[in-house]
Amino acid sequence: MIELKLIDSFPQEIIAVDEVGRGPLCGPVVIGAVRLKVQSKDELKRVLKSLKSTGINDSKKLSSAKRINILSQLGLHLLDYRQNDAIKFGGLKINYLTWEMDHQVIDEENILAASLRGMKEAALYLSEAKKNLTTVLIDGNKKLRWDKASPFNEIPIIGGDQKSLLIGLASIVAKEKRDQHMRDLHELFPQYGLASHFGYPTKSHKEAIRKFGPCPYHRKTFKGVKEVLAERP
Q: Crossing angle for the helix pair 165-188 and 64-73, nearest 10 degrees?
């Protein structure tokens, strides 16, 4: 539990953020964020132990059934994902939310910038502590982007969704939310097979884009979409 090695001051507000959907050709990038406030290392150790017992891991290593089972153990259900909702688990309140950066923002800013901006906005929305009392755990090797100094103690963790239980939970929340969003888009545009590949650049998805042209939710600046648009009158 890497959190215990990285966080050494208390009380502490801890926010973990992760994104899902940087690679797809269609749909938003979805950020999952979780927040808890702990008074001591023992309190943090207790809640992490409880979270570990649910089977939390990198969302990509878990089937949808396992992800849903984990969320059910926490009392968190897909239809309940709202901005700044909360559950009680391990004796502490855990706030959570999903945050979306849509295809238009991705095309305007590029996928990395949109992902970092989304994680920053999600962390700001969740945070309740004063400056320097919040540690933000970020999946990846980059800190968030600010015009001025960050109000947070930011810790990027490469492979964070496998090393941090809190980032792992954020990734599960984001993955299930994004997959549901793509299933909904499938109802509108069944010709692309979005419910099976969730917008990723599979062979069948790229063939469907060439055959039918992109839908309004495809990312126009991504390879596999922009070439098709350039070829069309």
A: 120
